[in-house]
Design brief:
By secondary structure, the chain is α+β, with helices and mostly antiparallel strands. The relative contact order is 0.25. Helices cover 16% and strands 28% of the residues. Strands 1, 2, 3, 4, 7, 8, 9, 10, 11 and 12 form a 10-stranded mixed beta sheet that branches. Strands 5-6 form a two-stranded antiparallel ribbon. It is globular and about 50 Å long. It has helices at residues 61-67, 88-96, 148-155, 186-195; strands at residues 10-15, 42-43, 52-58, 76-83, 99-100, 103-104, 109-113, 134-141, 160-168, 171-172, 181-183, 211-216. The longest helix has 10 residues, at 186-195. The chain has a single domain, classed as Pseudouridine synthase, CATH 3.30.2350.
């Protein structure tokens, strides 16, 4: 389990669907406190309540600042179930930058997955329309605008149905189940810090699925 008293402790945690990225909530909703009973660790960034997957919890205020600093631009990879099957043109738009109300998104990596990734089932079923197929894309970003992934896929005509963050820098959600956490080892923490200086698109992490269609990197 590692030394939970370590002043440099970092946890990797699979945030479940419908869980707030906070340790308390005045309305009594599902929070991190329902899963993580480790003192003095705080979320480095956030995931929306309806999003799932990797969340890092760190004791170091400096590291939390680095992980949320928009000027550093470390890669974050998401597995995204969308309505329809994106064309090469749609994937190129995601990769090249999409104009949103708060500005154009940075260049990204957008891949259409050949088969659906192996993920834990979501407790609340996805609402799908029988007449419209669905597909999965892997999207790697180096920024974190509010609800960015959902807005990007909607902008190219493919609304997001399910959103799972798979990796942050060199750290992945591999081996975790929803609600589970484990501390990073010292080498993993070193790799994470080194990864903060990766150029956009340098991390190609994912659960080993082969893409099809357009692959763009800028």
């Amino acid at each position: 389990m590692g030394n939970l008293d370590d002043p440099d402790l970092v946890l990797r945690f699979w945030k479940p669907y419908d869980c707030l990225t906070a340790f308390s909530d005045r309305d009594g909703r599902h929070t991190l406190a329902d899963h993580v009973a480790v003192p003095n660790v705080y979320a480095a960034g956030r995931l929306d309540r309806d999003s799932e997957g990797l969340l890092l919890l760190a004791r170091s205020k400096r590291l939390r600042g680095q992980l949320t600093d928009a000027t550093i631009g470390h890669p974050r990879t998401y597995l995204v179930q969308v309505e329809g099957i994106p064309s090469s043109e749609a994937l190129c738009r995601l990769a090249g930058g999409v104009d949103l109300k708060d500005g154009r998104t940075r260049p990204a990596i957008a891949e259409l997955l050949e088969v659906a990734p192996e993920l834990p089932p979501r407790p609340v079923p996805i609402r799908m329309r029988k007449t419209i197929p669905d597909s999965w894309i892997r999207l790697t970003l180096t920024e974190g605008k509010n609800r960015q992934v959902r807005r990007m896929t909607a902008a190219v005509g493919h609304p997001t149905l399910r959103l799972v963050r798979w990796s942050i820098g060199t750290v992945t959600a591999d081996g975790l189940a929803p609600g589970e956490w484990e501390p990073l080892t010292l080498p993993e923490r070193r790799q994470l810090r080194t990864g903060l200086n990766l150029a956009p698109g340098a991390s190609r992490s994912g659960p080993g699925r082969r893409p099809r269609g357009q692959r763009s990197q800028h």
